[in-house]
Amino acid sequence: MMAEFDYVNSLIPGACFGTFKLPDELAFVVARGEGSTVWSTDGRVFLDYVLASGPMVLGHAHPKVVEAVRDQVSRGTSFYAMNEPAIELAAEVHRLIPCAEAVKFVGDGAEATFYCLRLARAFTGRDKVLKFEGAYHGHHDYALHGLKASGLPEYPGATPDSAGIPQAVTGTVLMAPFNNLGVTRQVVARHGSELAAIIVEPIQRALLPRPGFLDGLRELCDECGALLVFDEVVTGFRVALGGAQQLYNVTPDLCSLGKIVGGGLPLAVVAGRRDVVELSSPLASTGRAVYLSGTLNGNPLAAAAGLATLKVLTELDGPKWLEQIGTALADGLRDTAQRLSLPLQMMGPPAFPEPVFDTAEVSDYRTYSATNRRAAQQFGLELVRRGVFVHPAAKMYVSTAHTALQLDQTIEIAHDAMTAVRDQGLIQD
Question: Which reaction(s) does the protein catalyse, per the Swiss-Prot or TrEMBL entry (predicted)?
């Protein structure tokens, strides 16, 4: 396998597609996936809690999705023109998502958040955006600020997380701590007249919002004239069919949707108020017209996969199913740690719980960063070593395909993984 990854690295730098990379001794090439299981080319079998970083909410190769994609392939894979699957999917998004008066398709979640911010700047005539420290909104220059724990500036200062981001862009990004309305209100008081948008993951990574926090952001935006943008790439259709905005009863002006909406194929959505989204129409007034286009936007193959996924989720009451599965997983991991006298808490909603080795309250990025990240990372690696595929030190996605037997197997394996981490001296009993 080491030699194989040397070859892969010679073709694909880092031998990975982004930043997610397992150590060489654990890394593998996927041969196929079915349900909540993936198989590697070297014969290993993994229970999958990565699920392609979330899109495979029904599991891999769900028969209804496979059927929809196969049918669309026979009709054509791309047209650069309006097509029936895209229209049907837009109607379904409009039906399910509270803010979705109007819909535009893009390629991935990062494009969706990028265009949400572009629309907000055009609509308000302002340049600055406020995001929350530790939030991930994709790969574009505005999003890549405040993700790392080192060298954190005083609020609302923002530090870029990648080389190649112009200082001029950094100067338009303001930062505040998640779940802290007091600091956020201070930032808005100073910069509200310059603020185009507040963008927030309503559940930031696995940090649940405190009661009143999202309502407070809605009120701040209304007061200063900025737009409220929910990044629902992760939460959309997962924590409720209408996303976190339905779950918490707070309606943003715009939202980004990804992952589930494409059914495992590249697709994302900008949804929101019609008076804002229609600025992207070719018929929009030239003064505020927003360029939003892409060769594969509204791709019929991806739209067919997404539409089939949403139909199955609706029929199953998928979010309730995910809640039951995720609760069983989180309870099992928590009980296992308790039997081993290890300090573990399960963060996040049941649909994507995250194990954190610490007992202190975790409410924002800095308190999250202060937890035992080394132990969380090693725990994830020990799970992978034993046949449970996770993104180490991150959330664990569950699907409707995970079975009670697989959950029992996962919890049994987790006992051995936690014991190994403890025996390495990374966590104390």
Answer: (S)-4-amino-5-oxopentanoate = 5-aminolevulinate
